[in-house]
Amino acid sequence: MTRRYVILLLGFAVFAAVFARLVEGRYPWPTPSKTPGAIPNVSDSTPASTGPIIYYRDPDGRPAYSFTPKKTSAGKDYLPVRASEDVSFGDKPPPVAAASGQRRVRFYRNPMGLPDTSPVPKKDSMGMDYIPVYEDESEDSSTVTISPGKLQKTGVRSEPVERQTLSVPVRATGRIEFDPRRISIVSLRFEGFIESVEKFVEGDYVRKGQVLMRIYGPNVSSAAAEYVAVLKTRRGEAIEAAGIESARLRLRNLGLDDNAIAEIARARSVPHHILWRAPQDGHIFERTALNGMRAAPGDALFRIVDHSVVWVLADIAERDISLVAPGQKVDVRPRAYPDRTFKGKVALIYPHLNIETRTGRVRIELANPDGLLRGDMYAEVEIAAGGNEKALTVPESAVIDTGKRQVAIVDKGDGRFEPREVKIGRRGEGFVEIKSGVNENERVVTAANFLIDAESNLKAALRALDQGEAGK
């Protein structure tokens, strides 16, 4: 009984050893021999799996893996995955070529960027192939070469460097005010009495030349009497012309317009009152004149404002002052009309800053033909800064900004990329101005450029490590 039991144990041990070697791939599984004339099986065209077992995968196709043999909850064995079946992210390292005309591998580096190299092909703990580093890569240390397969997987995209007009919008808030050059004050230059005022009140619109009020003034009557007397006196032509012009000038100095003086000359009599007319078109912003009141010289009886053009005073941040210049176009959106945009332009940049808010004031002239814009309204202002000059630009996503330096990845074609340090300028509309570093019509990477930059940094670190080991 004991002898039979020993024989059974030895047989089981031999079977287990053979099975283990078969699992490890040291012995091929027996395959049926092909007979001449037999119909070829579809499975005959599939290459046999070779190499050692790397890991085990779920038999039902679920994303579950194991480094050791394992069973599912249903009792199914995990399927072994051999080296030839493994699909890694990186390309398979080609064998070291000894023949002339082929690239020679210097060493293999860790695919995850760890400081680990190997003189022969190998895999890391996750089953990923080490990446080969070729001898000719040291000839162009600034270029990173990426295989087409990896480019497709990482989604690398590039766009050309173009020269175009770069608009940099500067946004601020502003307040609408009247243009003081379009405001007129109606006052007297003499002491007079207002006999009557026309039915104009604050807010009414008047035209230039419309009668506002009737004025009586002793000084005006005296000057008018002198003018009439000169007109009626017959003297020499030279003396008469000089006297008429002197009397007319005195009336004009009292504030009478040409129409009032012509009316006195036509009537050849001293008027009882003078018709005082509006000096310009506009709205009556203020009225203090009343029937029968006494008006002293300089009293503001009417204030007339022309609203056809208004100002917008906007306060912009100190850092944006250099971007703004007179003549630039401006979009103004009053808060009272959020769905409307009024077009204007920058007229003046004030020469001083607000020390408390650190802002600079900009004056914007704005047409107001419909009279919708009113004084003291708040508005959102957007200045199209940048001018009309074209600049070298790239998409914002093409620039890797680390704070201390800016890098752009230049696509040199055939999977070759070169990181370059660039100097940037203005930003706007999704583009950034490039002052130096790249040239027009070159292509820069706009997607997955961080991966290429990391690859370049890793390559530089490995090169420095390799040079350090060679110097020992």
Automatic annotation (TrEMBL):
Gene3D superfamilies: 2.40.30.170, 2.40.420.20. Residues 33-55 are annotated as: Disordered. NCBIfam families: RND_mfp (TIGR01730). Pfam families: Beta-barrel_RND_2, BSH_CusB, CzcB_C. The lineage of its organism: Bacteria, Pseudomonadati, Pseudomonadota, Alphaproteobacteria, Hyphomicrobiales. Belongs to the membrane fusion protein (MFP) (TC 8.A.1) family. Residues 184-304 form the CusB-like barrel-sandwich hybrid domain. It comes from the Bacteria. Residues 310-385 form the CusB-like beta-barrel domain. Signal peptide: none annotated. Keywords: Plasmid, Transport. This is Efflux RND transporter periplasmic adaptor subunit. InterPro entries: Beta-barrel_RND_2, BSH_CusB, CzcB_C, MFP_Cation_Efflux, RND_pump_MFP. Residues 392-452 form the CzcB-like C-terminal circularly permuted SH3-like domain.
